[in-house]
Inverse folding.
């Protein structure tokens, strides 16, 4: 039996703690893995335009049952989706009651609520903000998820183009404010909430992002607020695609390498030469599952190391994904920090990304995805981590810059900001701080390297072609930072 990643998820300890007369909040163990939505019931508010249609098709394709709450849906659409097994209902003023009434009694399947918000309805500032009568109001949507079974999901979607009307801008900002609180209320039940702001995104690309956020693959993500733009790169994956993952001997990097290899990528597993044994174990585990990987022993923070990595990429003649993951901590208060501790962290966590990315740039293919590991601490700051947070904040700027520079070549660049993930790196964190970190997450638990790996795999896949220049927190809804 594999050990639980945290005591609060161990069934025996949970039983014992639950019997204590103490106000200890226990998390809901998450349902992880894959994109299959069987045993989930999806509800779509409104079926009007191509985006709604793409969302409906997507959840049906992934195996969910579908209820559409739109009495005014066009007859032709209604007939088409009923033939695919969807059911239709009218929106009631009380959305949770409407959903409950339309489901079989006692249906405890997780709810996947896709709520397309409408700023124009009513023609004034009420719209979906306060108008409950049409059943699409924000409060009803929030309450529907709050009372839904464990592991439910909300994906709220707003139109917010560059030239948004005041109503659109206000609704988008208000919905973001709602979700910043709501995901904390739903977290203890393992339910998650996200906001998608549409800024010229293709309907199929919106459905691809929603399909990921509704799936078990994203179980540890909550509270994401993403802007979806026009497609960058093609919709399909290239054959023979090659990925580079730095710092991949162990921890998050190794999980990313394994995840990509399992999806058919040829993976270059980079780590320092001293980590050869661990790196070869990662390569071996990939090969024994039928994947293709090769160890590239090189210090990615040195010029020679970056050149060695580029030479390994050149041997494949192409690069379709670069995951800049290598990172170190040298935690000290700033008063006690040595120049070496400062320089080492800058070199590995920040300068290495620039060095390696510049060296492999000639091999980047159109459609390639770059994912760079930052940290929630790079957003929020943390006592005793001035060097680390400086480096991780710098990563966020690189992502914004490169996303603009690379878009015309069909290449995307995003940052991942993990919160507390169970790895050797966080094993060094004092137990009190680890317990605090858990209590500060909406989901009340640490993440696994596999959670970050799922997000990285999504960000280098064409499914995220509408997403670039953004920072995606992989933190279980941590109450840190803006
Ligand atoms: P880890 O310490 O378990 O693994 C890091 C790997 O990077 C190691 O295998 C190490 O040998 C390698 N590495 C270090 N310096 C290198 C260099 N110069 N060249 C090549 N490889 C090098 O760490 P992890 O927890 O898996 O973290 C991975 C990334 O995620 C890091 O960038 C880290 O800052 C970030 N992160 C982790 C957490 C967390 O909770 N674990 C939280 C936020 C951010």
């Amino acid at each position: 039996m594999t050990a639980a990643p945290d005591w609060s998820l161990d069934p025996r300890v949970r039983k014992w703690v639950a019997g204590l007369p103490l106000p200890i909040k226990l998390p809901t163990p998450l349902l992880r893995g894959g994109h299959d939505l069987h045993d989930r019931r999806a509800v779509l508010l409104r079926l009007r335009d191509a985006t709604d249609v793409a969302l409906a098709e997507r959840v049906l394709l992934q195996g969910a049952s579908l209820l559409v709450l739109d009495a005014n849906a066009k007859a032709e659409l209604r007939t088409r989706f009923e033939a695919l097994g969807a059911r239709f209902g009218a929106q009631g003023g009380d959305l949770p009651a409407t959903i409950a009434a339309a489901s079989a009694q006692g249906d405890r399947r997780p709810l996947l609520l896709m709520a397309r918000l409408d700023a124009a309805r009513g023609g004034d500032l009420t719209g979906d903000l306060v108008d409950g009568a049409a059943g699409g109001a924000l409060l009803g949507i929030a309450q529907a998820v709050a009372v839904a079974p464990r592991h439910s999901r909300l994906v709220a979607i707003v139109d917010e183009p560059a030239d948004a009307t005041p109503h659109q801008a206000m609704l988008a900002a208000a919905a973001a404010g709602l979700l910043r609180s709501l995901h904390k209320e739903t977290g203890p039940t393992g339910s998650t909430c996200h906001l998608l702001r549409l800024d010229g995104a293709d309907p199929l690309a919106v459905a691809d992002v929603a399909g990921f956020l509704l799936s078990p693959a994203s179980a540890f993500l909550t509270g994401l607020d993403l802007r979806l733009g026009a497609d960058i790169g093609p919709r399909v994956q290239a054959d023979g695609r090659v990925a580079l993952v730095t710092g991949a001997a162990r921890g998050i990097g190794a999980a990313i390498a394994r995840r990509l290899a399992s999806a058919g990528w040829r993976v270059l597993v980079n780590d320092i030469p001293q980590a050869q044994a661990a790196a070869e174990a990662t390569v071996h585990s990939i090969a024994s599952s039928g994947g293709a990987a090769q160890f590239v022993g090189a210090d990615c923070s040195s010029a020679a190391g970056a050149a060695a990595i580029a030479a390994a990429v050149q041997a494949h003649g192409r690069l379709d994904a670069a995951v800049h993951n290598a990172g170190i901590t040298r935690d000290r208060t700033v008063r006690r920090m040595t120049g070496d501790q400062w320089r080492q962290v800058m070199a590995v966590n920040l300068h290495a990304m620039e060095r390696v990315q510049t060296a492999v740039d000639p091999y980047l293919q159109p459609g390639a995805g770059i994912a760079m590991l930052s940290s929630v601490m790079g957003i929020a700051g943390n006592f005793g981590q001035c060097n680390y947070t400086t480096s991780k904040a710098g990563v966020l700027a690189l992502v914004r810059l490169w996303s603009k520079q690379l878009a015309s070549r069909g290449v995307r660049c995003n940052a991942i900001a993990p919160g507390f993930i169970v790895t050797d790196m966080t094993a060094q964190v004092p137990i009190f701080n680890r317990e605090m970190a858990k209590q500060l997450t909406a989901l009340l638990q640490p993440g696994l390297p596999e959670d970050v790996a799922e997000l990285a795999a999504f960000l280098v896949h064409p499914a995220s072609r509408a997403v670039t220049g953004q920072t995606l927190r992989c933190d279980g809804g941590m109450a840190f930072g803006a």
About this structure: The mean pLDDT is 93. The chain has two domains: 35-228, 242-474.
